[in-house]
Amino acid sequence: MKVTCGTDIIEISRIKESIEKNGKAFLERVFTENEIEYCESKKKQKYQHYAARFAAKEAAFKALSWKIGDKYSVCWKDFEVINTEQGRPTLKIIGVDLKDIEDIDISISHCKEYAVANVTVLSK
Ligand SMILES: CC(C)(COP(=O)(O)OP(=O)(O)OC[C@H]1O[C@@H](n2cnc3c(N)ncnc32)[C@H](O)[C@@H]1OP(=O)(O)O)[C@@H](O)C(=O)NCCC(=O)NCCS
Description:
Layout: E1 2-11, H1 12-30, H2 33-40, H3 46-68, E2 79-83, E3 89-93, E4 101-110, E5 114-123
Antiparallel strand pairs: 1-5, 2-3, 4-5
Bound molecules: coenzyme A.
Coenzyme A binds near residues 49, 89 and 108.
């Protein structure tokens, strides 16, 4: 049994600038349809939620980098954050072979300036 984790912190202003500058092209390159729908539903707070998902994807890469290695080329949309009805985030992985991975957990937090995410992976 092996446990790996990854964490990331990001300035929300960085993501806000990218969205304002590159609009839909940036959003559709980095975030899935479900993620865009979730963040846009947060109206004025949406940049915090986008930044948190960006951090989540970086954290997921860190937690899985030992497995991704040279074998897979992953892109942003290979990692998707989906919230349960209670608001708890879950991480869906699309582009990586999951056969040795037993469980994944994610935690997210954001305030006015920063967003952070932590991903923990349990593998065989
Ligand atoms: C859910 C809760 C923990 C969020 O915390 P917060 O300080 O308001 O906000 P944060 O920025 O730190 O966290 C927001 C993220 O929490 C995550 N979250 C929301 N509900 C969650 C839940 N039920 N379980 C785990 N994570 C949750 C989400 O990922 C959310 O970000 P997202 O909407 O972009 O996905 C908080 O609103 C809450 O309910 N607190 C109650 C705590 C309590 O009862 N304490 C007393 C005893 S411990």
